[in-house]
Amino acid sequence: MARTSPPPPVPSRRWTTCCGRAGASNAFPEVTGFGQVNWEELVKRNPDAILIEDQAFEPADTAIAFLTSYPPIQGVTAVKEKRFIVVPVNDNQPGLRSGRALQTIVAELG
Question: Taking the complete model, does pTM exceed 0.90, yes or no?
C-alpha cells in the first residue's frame, strides 16, 4: 500500500548507543526512547546515512521507496546517495541480536 502522507522520522536511544559503538553518531541524540521529529529538522541535520528497521507492517523496501520519492528530503545526503542501513526490527531488541545489528551498521558504514 502506497503511503499518502509522510510518517515522521522516529529516532531511538537504542540506535544512538548502537551507532556510537559503530563509530557513528545519531542525528538526533537528544531524543530519548522512541520519539518523532519533523522533516524540516531532518533536512537541517542532513544525515550521511539513515538507519531503517525492516518490519513486517512496513518492510524496508517500502520505507526506502517512500524516502527516495518524498520531495522535501531529496537534498538530504543519505537520500541523494541512497545510503540506507537496513536492520531487522528484532535486532533492535536488547540481547544477542543487538550484536548482529552492530555488525550490520559497521559493515554498511565501513
Answer: no
